[in-house]
Amino acid sequence: QVQLVESGGGPVQAGGSLRLSCAASGGQFSRLTLGWFRQAPGKEREFVAGINRSGGTTYSVESGKGRFTISRDNDKKTVYLQINNLKPADTGRYYCAAKSTIITAPIPTTPEYSYWGQGTQVTVSS
Questions:
Q1: Which residues contact 65 (CB under 8 A, 6 or more apart)?
Q2: What end-to-end distance do the CA atoms of the chain give, in Å?
Q3: Mean pLDDT score, 1-7
Q4: C-alpha neighbours within 13 Å on the C-beta side of residue 91
Q5: pLDDT score for 103
Q6: H, E, C per residue of the chain
Q7: Which residues contact 102 (CB under 8 A, 6 or more apart)?
Q8: Angle at 63 between CA 84 and CA 91, to 5 degrees
């Protein structure tokens, strides 16, 4: 069983930056594919970014425009999401997700992950 705990969210002004962290415990971190999702008020949870066991990454169309960077540190059992030039539209609850996969598996962009954290709230004011 894998437990995920997100941190790093908070209120921020537009144009600012945040680095979200997700610390994992239990399981074998290096065998996990990891993802970040976002859920804005009144909207469905949406994929933001994912990273596979080899460090390969994939982003949504919006997050792939350069403001978001996902990374992982296997020694610290932590996955990060760096968000720069924050916009009010980035407001939402950010969730970390994990799934045990083979090393060649594609990164899921839908909520088919096995493990989820409780989320960390990001609120961007204009």
A1: none
A2: 40
A3: 97
A4: 12
A5: 87
A6: CCEEEEECCEEEECCCCEEEEEEEECCCHHHEEEEEEEECCCCCCEEEEEECCCCCEEECCCHHHCCEEEEEECCCCEEEEEECCCCHHHCEEEEEEEEECCCCCCCCCCCCCCEECCCEEEEEEC
A7: none
A8: 65
1: buried, middle or exposed (CB in 10 Å: 19+, 13-18, 0-12)? exposed
**Mean model confidence pLDDT for the chain:** 96
Mean pLDDT of 95-101: 96
In the prediction, which pLDDT does 91 show?
97
Q: 3-class secondary structure for 74-100? A: CCCCEEEEEECCCCHHHCEEEEEEEEE
Q: Which residues of 20-49 are buried (b: 16+ CB within 10 A; e: fewer)?
A: bbbbbeebebeebbbbbbbeeeeeebbbbb
Q: Are 37 and 48 within 8 A, CB to CB?
A: yes
Q: Which two tokens stand for residue 13?
A: 């002004």
- How are beta strands 120-125 and 10-13 bridged, if at all? parallel
Taking the mean position of all CA atoms in its chain, how far away is CA 109? 11
